[in-house]
Each structure stands twice: as structure tokens, then as C-alpha cells.
Amino acid sequence: MASTADISRGMILKLEGSLYTVVEFGENKTARAAAKVWARLKGVDNSRTIEKTWNSGDTIFPVRVERKTFQFLYKDDTGYNFMDNETFEQIAMEERLVDAPQFLKDGQEVSVLINTESDQPMSVELPDKIVLKVTYSEPGVRGDTATRTLKPATVETGATVMVPLFVNEGEVIRVNAKTGEYVERVK
């Protein structure tokens, strides 16, 4: 057990029988009333996003989570299949439990969050930035670089990313996996 003073971003809490990740949190102090702690929570085992407020010092129930490195193998009818890099054990995860499935490519290393109480995999997180090859992109118009104009480009995983006009087919780019936005060209 812990108190609201222990809340941190990324912490996983058990709340009303479900597991939630703390996305954002803060404290509201007023002159007359006791301080309140608020948090924006994203469901780990469901797709809900909620906001919760506690009185300062209230008890919260964090869940111990272990982060293990797995390798993406393939996708089939059972879901996305991953292999533990240490034990070579394979697990299948549903698409809703994968952070950004459109950016997964064969052999990519990901982090799997495992609930230490039940040894159940809870979710799959991709690295923050992923290097992908552009497989299709319309050529940019020469001289049209005065503004930050973007065009769609298809990457090797089949996802579409908005890129600047100077990015061409066959180039390697870095993409933010959380937002799906172009970051930079990779030399």
C-alpha cells in the first residue's frame, strides 16, 4: 500500500477492480480545504481513460510490474506473437494490448509489462522512436519548401506517416511511436 504522495507518471494502480496507468498527475491546494491529488489514468486491461481525485494522503494500491524485453515474431489469428529473449518462451497478445501495432516490424524488440502478482502479460510498449524505411511516397514539388508542408508516406510496416516534402521513397526515417509523427531522416 502507498499514499497519494507516491504517485508518479507510468505507475500502474488497481482501482475498482481494473488496472490503470498514470498518464498525468498533479496537486490542487486551496487555502481553506485540504489538498487534493488528481490523476489522468489510462486503462491497462480496458480501453477507458478516466480522471480520479483523492484527498492528499489517501491510500492507493500500486501494482508491481516487471518490464521484460521481448522480440516481435509474427501476427496471426491468435494475435501478435512475441518471444522472450532470455527464456525463448512465446506469448500471444491481443491487438488492443499492443501500444502502436501499425509500427511493429519482424524482429523488433519491445517491452512487455508483466503483472508480478499473477505473472500475466498486461501490455506491449514499443520504443519511443522507431526507424522505418519509406516504401512509397509521392515526389515533392521543387521549390515548395517555404512552408512546413507535409505529404503522406507509406512505411515498411504498411502504416502511413505524414512527412516533409523532401523525404523520398527508399529513405529511412525516424518516427515517434507514441504520436505517429515524423521526427527526422536517418543517414
Per DSSP E runs of 2 or more residues, the count of β-strands stands at 16
Beta-strand residue fraction: over 45%
* Secondary-structure element order, N to C: EEEEEEEEEEEEEEEE
Helix content: under 10%
Largest sheet: 5 strands, antiparallel
The largest beta-sheet arranges its strands as 9-8-7-10-11
Q: Distance N terminus to C terminus?
A: 49 Å
Q: Overall 3D geometry?
A: flat
Explain what the structure shows:
The protein folds into 3 domains: 2-60, SH3 type barrels (Roll), CATH 2.30.30.30; 65-125, OB fold (Dihydrolipoamide Acetyltransferase, E2P) (Beta Barrel), CATH 2.40.50.140; 129-186, OB fold (Dihydrolipoamide Acetyltransferase, E2P). It is built from no helices and 16 strands. It has strands spanning 2-3, 12-15, 18-28, 36-43, 49-55, 59-60, 65-76, 79-84, 90-93, 109-115, 120-125, 129-137, 150-155, 160-164, 172-176, 182-186. The strands form 4 sheets. Strands 9-8-7-10-11 form a 5-stranded antiparallel beta sheet, with no helix packed on it. It has a 5-stranded antiparallel beta sheet with strand order 14-13-12-15-16, with no helix packed on it. A 4-stranded antiparallel beta sheet has the order 2-3-4-5, with no helix packed on it. Helix content is 0%, strand content 53%. It has 187 residues and is mainly beta. The chain is flat and about 65 Å long.
